[in-house]
Design brief:
This protein has 422 residues and is mainly beta. It has no helices and 29 strands.
């Protein structure tokens, strides 16, 4: 396997918050560093033997300046690529290395064709503009990394560590804007922000839409938004909130306590393809309650809690395009689980357990993304030193296709964040 430590995912830092002080306790601690910390890190060691891209190169101005989702910076049928971070040097010190890996015709990943440097990201996902020419990544420093990809996959760093005026740990593309998640308490700037971007990758200043407490994810739902947080818009406790733009301000329409306790540490959010249900992960490590998946039935103006599903450390969800299953990544469980989905059943989600693995279970899996495009039912799951592929077969069945883009031994080969170009 690798010389990496046992744990490559962020530790749970959401032990019951001190409600007397709105300190920021939500930024996930980086626990992926090698276990041996007695020797000082050799920060002079190069991050990678591949020469990093020159981040002083100006942004690629050949990207069409047509604003927002109508940007067409790449030709139709362009080659697709995955972009992944590699957050360690060979000596175990922190690195800010990113690599571009071509997507093959059969949905595997070829070895990296380019390396570049941005801010450090030790987990999470990369968001892309609709045409695939621009990528956006929330980084450990609370900054935003922005890059452009040419048709052949060669990267240009637009902004290595952009400060849009707000600390962030998640970014979502919403048309011609980005939605940025600040995980702090509202009194310390926590909330959901909106920032415009243009076709050259220039990002404007972030504007607060509404405050929130310990938010981890936001998803557009038509003109509304669903946000997984301990509060949003007002002081009402909950875990999932339906927010609506009233023209001059956003207001909370509905919300629900999905876990029946105030010790849950929220980790992930997903909505089924039919829009009828939402799933929220609780991966609290210091709680009197077992980890579980919160389930909410969604109406036009309602959020109704259903019975949670017990599962260790649910840190990522991927919804099947067939509308009959959800793949759940269990980080500390070294596993993925398949939830069968039957929306009209009294119990809409049923844990079917783990699929049959080709070469054993994944090693410390973390981020997961649906590949889409010519591979609409293919999922990439990051594990320690490879990307594991799974396929939704329909009928609630998921098949393990094994590892791709295995990087070999050494901490410099540990994966962090990942995204796939549309």
């Amino acid at each position: 396997d690798t010389t990496a430590p046992a744990d490559t995912r962020p530790a749970d830092t959401t032990a019951p918050a001190d409600t007397t002080a709105p300190a920021d306790t939500t930024a996930p601690a980086d626990t992926t560093a090698p276990a041996d910390t007695t020797a000082p890190a050799d920060t002079t060691a190069p991050a990678d033997t591949t020469a990093p891209a020159d981040t002083t190169t100006p942004a690629d101005t050949t990207v069409a300046d047509t604003s927002g989702p109508t940007c067409v910076g790449l030709p139709t049928g362009h080659a697709r690529h995955a972009v992944a971070s590699f957050p360690y040097n060979a000596d175990g010190s922190k690195a800010n290395v990113w690599r571009v890996l071509p997507l093959t015709g059969d949905g595997a990943l070829d070895p990296a064709i380019a390396t570049f440097t941005m801010g450090r990201a030790y987990w999470g996902t990369v968001a892309f503009s609709p045409d695939g020419s621009l990528g956006f990544a929330a980084q450990e420093s609370g900054t935003l990394g922005v890059f452009a990809l040419a048709a052949d996959g060669q990267p240009t760093v637009v902004a290595a560590e952009l400060d849009p005026g707000v600390y962030l740990d998640a970014a979502v593309v919403d048309g011609d804007h980005l939605l940025l998640v600040n995980p702090n308490w509202a009194a310390s700037g926590g909330g959901i922000y909106r920032a415009p971007y243009d076709c050259a990758g220039n990002v404007g200043p972030a504007q607060l839409l509404y405050g929130s407490k310990n938010a981890v994810a936001v998803l557009p739902r038509g003109a509304d938004q669903l946000v997984a947080s301990r509060a949003a818009g007002d002081a009402t406790f909950g875990h999932l909130h339906l927010m609506r733009d009233g023209g001059t301000s956003w207001a909370k329409v509905a919300g629900a306590d999905l876990f029946g306790n105030d010790q849950a540490s929220l980790s992930a959010l997903a909505v089924t393809g039919d829009g009828r249900f939402a799933l929220v992960g609780d991966n609290a490590g210091f709680s009197d309650f077992d980890n579980s998946i919160g389930v909410a039935a969604l109406g036009d103006d309602t959020v109704t809690a259903r019975t949670p599903i017990p599962l260790l450390d649910p840190i990522a969800f991927v919804v099947s395009p067939h509308g009959d299953a959800v793949l759940v990544v269990s980080g500390y469980g070294n596993a993925v689980h398949v939830l069968a989905y039957a929306p009209s059943a009294a119990t809409p989600f049923t844990d079917q357990g783990e699929p049959s693995y080709v070469t054993g279970p994944p090693s410390l899996p973390s981020g997961a993304v649906l590949v889409g495009g010519a591979h609409p039912d293919l999922v990439f799951v990051v594990e320690l030193s490879a990307v594991r592929r799974f396929r939704f077969e329909g009928g609630g069945v998921v098949t393990d296709l094994g590892r791709t883009a295995a990087t070999g031994a050494g901490t410099h080969n540990i994966y962090g964040a990942i995204g796939v170009q549309p």
